[in-house]
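Workshop exercise sheet. Pairs work together: one partner reads the sequence aloud, the other fills in the structure field after running the prediction. Swap roles for the next sheet.
Pair: D.N. / O.F.
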Amino acid sequence: MKRPVLVGAWVLSGALIAAACAQAVSADHAGATSGGAGGTEQGGSGGTASMLTMASSSNASGGVSGTSTSTSSGGGGGGASPVTTTGGPGSVGGAAGAPSTTQGGGGVPADACAVAEDCEPIEGECVLCELGPSAFNECVSQGPSACDSDQRDACELCDGSDLGDAPASCVDFGEPGEFSGGSVRCNDTCDGYDTSACSVCGNDVKDAGEACDGTDIPAANCAALRLPPPATGEDVALPCLESCDYDRSSCARCSVPETDCLLGADSDCSGASCAGKQCAAGETCVMACGNAESCTGLSCNMSAHCSATCGEFGVCDETCEPFSECALDCAGAYDSSCGLTCAPGATCTLACGQPADGGENPAACQIECAVGSNCSVVAGVHEAAPTGTAYCAAGATCDYLCRSQSDCSGLSVVCAEGATCNIECVEFATTCPSVNCEAGSLCLFDCGSNACNAPTCADGADCQCVGAICDFELPG
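Structure field:
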């Protein structure tokens, strides 16, 4: 097969090359053609010069520079002609691209960083390592820190009341046992913490957070600490421990036999075994009675914290001693019988359960609160019917919530001077308790479309209707 086109091409190519070489021999030859223009993103590279090999005294100029419109890296200069000259001053590259705001080459900024510590500090200024315009982390100055705004900036450890990650309590701030009380503060330069207000146990000075310290022992016996007196002997002043607290070991913990005293690791009970159990003074106890179980005789001794639950068809009653905190939850106990007795100074909450079908045997839910106690009642299940007397003492806030067609008319509430009582019975067919608001009390009623049950508001009592409808006249 003949290939006339291919042969002709070679002939033509040879002729062209010869002509080019002849032209290149000229001493006044300009040297090269211009390269192409560069791109516009990173400043493209300039085009290359004519790819000729010659002996010439002239210089071969590179291509036109690329123009940079990016803030990342400048374009490369035009490539110099790869012409090999003899005797000339050498090939000259094209002009460089427009300057970049960051270091050229790979686009990495000159002040790149991984963390703020990599940045060179600037006196009086806050320098951070942040994501910059180059898509790399760069060192950026935020200007001087204020250190007076009660709000930390990124270079401050703390500022005023904003302690950052530090705890406010000295006990939690220092090493275990280092401080016994007091509050941590931020220093004046916002770069450290001030512990001068922290208490140190063992210096024979009763500081904040300490009951006593060494020989500085304010007189206090068991009764003063709201604990039962000793089982034998007089209730005398208590000594001070090395931990800067009173030695309470002489105070009685329980008024029941030791086997029925819930104390320490054995402070919880469950099932019928809870019957007759007492949570020791100062302890925190959980008493859980299951379905159809009888947990009678539960008690919460002075300053104890007790949480008791009663199951369906269960029978549960609990007595709360002075200064204890008790909660008896029968809300999920269908057809249960629950009773709560609250002594002066105790804080009690009773949640009532649902009665049996047809309401023929309503769940018993009774509370008896002494004057000076703080009692709240929640009847939040269908047709619950709490009864008894609830008292709310000065300084306390008590809630009486009747919902889901509950009838709270059998509950009498006394809101004492200085107390705040919230009475709510907004859902359909609920009835509010009978409320007596004494002078100086605050009673807030939200009765919805239901009867507020004719509350008594004494002269000087602040009775307010916070719902849309209240069917009683406000005093004055």
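Discussion prompt: The chain has two helices and 24 strands. What would you look at next?
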